[in-house]
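Entry 14. Ran structure prediction on the chain below.
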Amino acid sequence: MYKISEIFPAFQGEGSEAGRKTIFIRFYGCPHKCSFCDSRYAWESGEYGSYTLDEVVRAIQALPNIKHITFTGGEPMFYDLTSIMLALKTDGYKFSIETQGAFYDMTTFTLLDNIVLSPKSPIAGAKATNLDNLHKTLDNFGHKSIIKIPIFTNTCLNFAKKLHHDYPNVPLYLGVGNASLDDESAPEQFKQDFNLDGYLSYYRTLMDLVLADAELVDVFVLPQLHVIAYGNERGK
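Output, structure tokens:
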């Protein structure tokens, strides 16, 4: 049985597949419960649907104009993704995952077409990612992975630099933080509700920081496109 917060068609708003038409399956539950999470409803609301494998497949097939699926959460690696992929792969579907990297499953990662690893830096009450499994994933599946880190503070940036140093051949995407953050060291805009002007201002600040940083050579700095278009509206 799968606990799913929502299934919806949208455009991927971040990372290497930004702009891609996809079906998001947002699974319910996460061990980290980060204070900076922008999808808290996927682990703290208690609101989800219970789906059998057949029901998941039917929900996907009811959206016939899209052949790309993104597993997200919460933490999708809590669930049997292999069965979903095997049920749909022969119909031409491609699969991506957004995971924080603490869980390793060779069969799942082999079937996936794209792996987005977003490990959690030790800030703001976040339980840091199990780096042993993260390194195992990057060692074995780095060729189809990216590392994506949301940047709120210098702690986040230094965490990203360390991973970039260890895995220079894995594309590194730095994202603009998008959440309220209870941390005295955080920039002022993270201590208040989201507003687009503040978000874009910090995007410019982050770009300037990365341009001037000699350790961050082959990296990408991107905003969340869906946030620019819709704010933090769910299902977008």
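The first strand starts at residue 2 and ends at 11. Will compare against last week's run tomorrow.
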